[in-house]
Design brief:
CATH class of the largest domain: Alpha Beta
Number of strands: 11
Structural class: alpha/beta
Largest sheet: 4 strands, mixed
Order of helices and strands: EEEEHHHEEEEHEEEHHH
Distance between the termini: 45 Å
Number of domains: 2
Radius of gyration: 20 Å
CATH architecture of the largest domain: 2-Layer Sandwich
Bound molecules: zinc ion
Length: about 260
């Protein structure tokens, strides 16, 4: 019998930690089951993710163990489609950013002067201008990061005020796998890629970190509190890992 792939949607990507020579890295992966195949095989998919092809009845734990044993192979092969992780290309296909609870139409043009962006809150638009001769990826990343710093901090303070919470500092950073974190000094660190998450999901991440100001753990009390901030917590929480698999690889510049 000829092996037949079961189609999976792109948002079925998950993330796992794999030990490589450079330490632990988060690897986006997908499992495809094949009838009639006998061995686990590993390849690289179009979204620059690991594709585990496994026999139909292979236990998932066995497949994951195999994946985690392939650190050096993954390290060598994961970036063979670097353009798939280009932020610039992604935004060409998905010309939208999200800020302050709104969807913004994004247009990208060129300029002869320095790169800049114009955020028209009332019109729901953001325009980016890149220099024609410059590295588009570098400039797009820089503009996205400064836009993210502007709106994510503002949104965090807005939501904190709504729930009568006192935040310390808010920093917007380039974490490689986390959407955000909250320190014991009440500093919230949020990933700039939140501007790529639709408003309800973006707010959910911010509310998650705000809930840590009261509950510094993931106990039942933490989740109850978060549900009181966001009644769709369970739905939103289940969407974060697939979104991370898609968005975390974006905007990583090659050294
Ligand atoms: Zn948490």
């Amino acid at each position: 019998m000829k092996p037949k792939p079961v189609p999976l949607k792109a948002d079925r990507l998950s993330l796992t930690e794999v030990e490589t020579s450079q330490g632990k890295v988060m690897v986006p992966y997908e499992v495809r089951r094949y009838k009639g195949s006998r061995h686990i095989k590993l390849s690289i998919g179009r979204q620059n993710h690991a594709v585990l092809s496994v026999p139909w009845r292979c236990p998932i734990a066995e497949a994951m163990e195999f994946l985690r044993s392939q650190g050096s192979w993954l390290e060598e092969n994961l970036n063979q489609h670097p353009s798939r992780s280009s932020l610039f290309d992604y935004l060409q296909d998905n010309p939208r950013l999200y800020g302050l609870g709104h969807v913004l139409r994004l247009t990208i043009h060129t300029t002869r002067a320095r790169p800049f962006y114009v955020y028209d809150k009332a019109a729901g638009e953001i325009e980016m201008r890149l220099r024609a001769e410059a590295n588009k990826e570098t400039e797009t990343l820089a503009l996205c990061r400064s836009f993210a710093s502007e709106v994510i901090e503002m949104r965090t303070l807005e939501l904190a005020a709504q729930h009568k919470l006192k935040v310390g500092r808010v920093t917007v950073r380039d974490q490689s796998s986390r959407w955000g974190s909250c320190s014991s000094r009440r500093t919230l660190s949020l990933n700039w890629r939140l501007i790529l998450l639709r408003p309800q999901l973006q707010d959910h991440v911010i509310l998650h970190e705000l809930a840590h100001l009261t509950e510094m753990n993931h106990s039942q009390r933490f989740w109850d509190l978060l549900r009181s901030y966001d009644p769709r917590t369970d739905h939103h929480n289940s969407q974060l890992n697939p979104a991370a698999a898609r968005l975390m690889p974006l905007g990583r510049l090659a050294e």
